[in-house]
Amino acid sequence: MKGTKLVLLKNAVRFVISNLGPADCLSIIAFSSTARRIFPLRRMSDVGRDCATLAIDSLVSSGGTNIAEGLNKGVQVLEQRRESNPVVSIILLSDGKDTYSTTFGIDHQSPHHQDSLNSRWISYFLQLLPHAICPSNGVVVGDNSLPPIPVHTFGIGADHDATCMHAISDVSGGTFSFIQDVNIIQDAFARCIGGFLSVVAQQLKLKIIPLSPGVRICSIPSGKHTSEISNNGKWGVVDVGDLYADEEKDFLVQVSVPVLSADEESPEVIEKFLRFDTLVVVRLLEGYLRRPFCGGLLFFPK
């Protein structure tokens, strides 16, 4: 990343810094073939914002793209923090393809993998990520272990590794954004940061209980949200996760209802069978919608 693209990126990050308050924390990691922390995790007071801006101004072009190393460094910074804010996230930006895997003989830029990574490489790559990002990679033991950290990825330009970035955001519960025009980087950041600062509920679980006799829950196609159904189908639970201000989520519930006789087949009778009770288990964030944010920005200044 260099030239106008790097200048616009720096301007966008300065915008992010200016919108964080003294209760928010920020660290900045730059990565190429290796990763280095160019700004330690600290609160965004007036002095903190000034120091973070100086760190951004020091970014220069480098070579190589080791995304896994950058993410591991970011998680390490968060695990070593002394204070814990309720909202923790990582923002990952890259305009190139990960070159680290080629060291291990998996060249996903060969003609066969020109446009996307195959499932074998994705599985291999995800194993390089820390447990805090990819929970399937074992269990972290110790007082400093973290719950899953969402990684919000931004692929900049046509040369970024869309499959890799999407896989990272998917396993971590984050989001993936494609920025085709570098001139809108700041707008994309604004939407992302606005989401961080408007989290109103965390660890939300939705429990669905049929109220009518004989009705059983068969399945809950919930996408990337994990779900569970009791053996007898009398209840189902969806792990919704974080919820933002004014956000809505829809879930499809497939049920089995008793066989009706001919004289019972009316809309009123069917509606009687489709009555449910819902129980929401949630960690509410009291106070203002703006939540203290703790996270890191990861950059690839190629």
Automatic annotation (TrEMBL):
InterPro entries assigned: CLCR, VWF_A, vWFA_dom_sf
Transmembrane segment boundaries: none
Record-given protein name: VWFA domain-containing protein
Domain VWFA, chain residue ranges per copy: 1-193
